[in-house]
C-alpha cells in the first residue's frame, strides 16, 4: 500500500469512528437542557472532525442556550469531552431554515468576519444573540446581504495573519457576551 493511499484509508477509518461516536452520543443529546443564557451558536457547514466538538465544550462552559448546525449531518464529539450530551443541538439542512427559525424566536443574528463589521468591544449584544460561524476554510455558505437582519461583527486582531481558529473565535465572542449579560452561578469560585 502506497503512502498517499494509506493516509486516505486511515482518514476514512477515522471518519467512520467519528460517525459511530456521534451516533452513540446523539441519543444522549436528545435529553440535553438549554443553557442558562439566551445566546445561541450557529455552525454553518463546519468540518466534522475537529472544531465542532470544541465549540460544544465552550458552549457548555458558557451556558449557551443551544447550538444550531447547518448542513452538518455528523461530527466527532470526542474533542468536546462529553459536552455534546449537555448542550441541545438543532440540525438544519439549509441556512435559510435556521435563519427563519431564529428570527421567529426573536434572535438577532451576527456573523463574525475578520476586518469587517463592528468590533465586539464596541457592540452592545442583545440577550437573544445568535452567533454564526462559517466553514474553517470557505467561510459562510450564504450571501449575508440576502438576510437583512444579520449584523456583522469582528474580533480585533493585531497580528499579520488576521485569522483565528473558529473554536477560539467562538470562545472569545461567548466570553464577551457573558461579560455583558452573564448570570453568576453561586457555585462559581468567583462568588
Quick gist of this model?
With 191 residues, the chain is α/β, with parallel strands linked by helices. It has 4 helices and 7 strands. It has one domain (3-181): Alpha/beta knot.
Q: Assign the CATH architecture.
A: 3-Layer(aba) Sandwich
What ranges have pLDDT less than 50 throughout 5 or more consecutive residues? none
The percentage helix is 25-40%
Mean pLDDT comes to 89
The outline comes out as globular
Count of all domains? 1
Beta-strand residue fraction: 15-25%
What's the total count of β strands? 7
| Major sheet characteristics | 7 strands, parallel
CATH superfamily: SPOUT methyltransferase, trefoil knot domain
Rounded radius of gyration (Å): 17 Å
Provide the CATH top-level class.
Answer: Alpha Beta
The SSE order reads: HEHEEHEEEEH
Give the neighbour order of strands across the main sheet. Answer: 3-2-1-6-4-7-5
Determine the CATH topology. Alpha/beta knot
Kindly report how far apart the N and C termini lie: 59 Å
Amino acid at each position: 500500500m502506497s503512502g498517499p493511499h494509506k493516509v486516505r484509508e486511515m482518514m476514512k477509518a477515522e471518519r467512520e469512528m467519528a460517525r459511530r461516536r456521534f451516533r452513540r452520543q446523539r441519543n444522549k443529546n436528545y435529553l440535553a437542557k438549554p443553557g442558562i443564557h439566551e445566546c445561541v451558536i450557529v455552525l454553518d457547514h463546519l468540518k466534522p472532525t475537529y472544531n465542532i466538538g470544541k465549540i460544544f465544550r465552550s458552549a457548555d462552559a458558557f451556558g449557551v442556550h443551544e447550538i444550531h448546525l447547518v448542513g452538518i449531518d455528523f461530527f466527532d464529539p470526542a474533542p468536546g469531552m462529553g459536552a455534546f450530551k449537555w448542550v441541545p443541538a438543532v440540525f438544519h439542512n439549509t441556512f435559510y431554515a435556521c435563519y427563519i427559525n431564529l428570527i421567529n424566536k426573536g434572535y438577532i443574528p451576527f456573523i463574525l468576519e475578520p476586518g469587517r463589521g463592528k468590533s465586539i468591544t464596541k457592540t452592545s449584544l442583545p440577550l437573544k444573540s445568535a452567533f454564526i460561524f462559517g466553514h474553517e476554510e470557505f467561510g459562510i455558505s450564504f450571501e449575508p446581504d440576502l438576510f437583512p437582519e444579520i449584523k456583522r461583527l469582528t474580533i480585533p486582531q493585531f497580528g499579520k495573519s488576521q485569522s483565528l481558529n473558529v473554536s477560539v473565535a467562538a470562545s472569545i465572542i461567548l466570553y464577551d457576551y457573558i461579560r455583558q449579560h452573564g448570570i453568576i452561578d453561586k457555585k462559581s469560585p468567583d462568588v
